[in-house]
Specification:
Residues about 280-285 have low confidence and may be disordered. This protein has helices at about 5-15, 130-135, 150-155, 160-165, 175-185, 200-220, 230-235, 270, 280-285; strands at about 20-30, 45-55, 60-65, 70, 75-80, 95-105, 110-115, 120-125, 255-260, 265. The relative contact order is 0.13. It starts with a helix and ends with a helix. The chain has about 290 residues and is an alpha+beta fold. The protein is elongated, with a radius of gyration of 20 Å. β6 and β7 (about 110-115) form a beta hairpin. An eight-stranded antiparallel β-sheet has the order 5-7-6-1-2-3-4-8, covered by helices on one side. The protein has a two-stranded antiparallel sheet with strand order 9-10.
């Protein structure tokens, strides 16, 4: 799933390539991708893109005097920039193409989604706050006013595990499964630790890990073409998605805890005092 660093990089990429250009056609291929109908998606046609914004994991194209084109790429979606779009409208089918945006230059981009769980979403709204997912977002962790005291206030009274708290978009915007693993590894903190139990020193450590991990990922992604962002993300991850590999810090084997629709990765030596966490799904399989 694209998270804050990748969406931030896409924002910068589209700011460079699309701002100042006119949207001439929006061509939905999968109608299910459209989550709003008033104004219609055609309301952005004939309008110039004046700015590109990021709201958590949402990408927002603002048009001159008109609506905002807001998209969430979900778990398996992506944006593919085309220096020259194919001639003729795309044909509906079983492929991953969900929607195409064409500019007056002949350039544009495709929104695609792999897999069977179609969650990629496009909204055309007068105000981004009309998108429910945007309206409920918590503060952006890279905002200038997001300091350690702000993080401490957000976690105060949180009885959830810190992994789940970091992923809650209404608490902190933009962090997902991958970067929460990376942040907790950098902070040397168990993903199962209760958020409200953090000491002031642990909160400061977590804050530093949060800001550093996300800033470094944004810096690695900045200036890359949209098509290279996925591979850059995977290359830069130290523990997430690396079950069975050695930890780059201590050399211990990276372990995994599986859930019904996701998994987390961690290093026992760095994060849990050498003790593996219980993987309930694996335990059931072994009974």
């Amino acid at each position: 799933m694209p998270e804050l660093p990748e969406v931030e990089a896409l924002k910068d990429f589209l700011t460079e390539r699309a701002v100042g250009h006119e949207i001439v056609r929006v061509l939905p291929v999968a109608i299910s991708v459209l989550k709003t109908y008033d104004p219609p998606v055609t309301a952005v046609e004939g309008r110039e893109i004046t700015a590109v914004h990021r709201h958590g994991k949402f990408l927002d194209l603002e048009t001159d005097g008109g609506p905002h084109f807001v998209t969430h790429l979900a778990r398996a979606g992506w944006l593919h920039w085309k220096d020259r779009l194919p001639d003729g409208p795309p044909r509906p089918g079983k492929g991953p193409l969900a929607l195409r945006v064409a500019l007056e230059t002949g350039e544009g981009f495709d929104l695609t989604e792999a897999g069977t769980q179609k969650r990629l979403a496009v909204y055309v709204v007068h105000d981004p706050q009309q998108v429910p997912g945007v309206a409920r977002l918590g503060p952006d962790p890279l905002a200038a006013d997001f300091d350690a005291a702000r993080l401490a206030g957000l976690l105060s009274g949180e009885r959830r595990r810190i992994k789940g708290a970091l992923r809650d978009q209404s608490l902190i915007a933009g962090v997902g499964n991958a970067y929460s693993d990376e942040i907790l590894h950098a902070a040397k903190m168990s993903p199962f630790k209760l958020a409200a139990s953090l000491t002031p020193e642990e909160t400061d450590t977590l804050y530093t890990a949060l800001r550093t991990t996300l800033t470094d990922a944004v810096d690695r992604s900045r200036g890359l073409a949209a098509g290279r962002l996925k591979s850059e993300k995977k290359t830069g991850l130290r523990v997430h998605g690396r079950t069975g590999e050695p930890c780059p810090v201590c050399g211990d084997t990276i372990r995994e805890v599986s859930f019904s629709d996701s998994s987390l990765q961690y290093c026992p030596t760095c994060q849990t005092g050498g003790k593996p966490l219980a993987d309930r799904r694996m335990s059931r399989l072994l009974k």
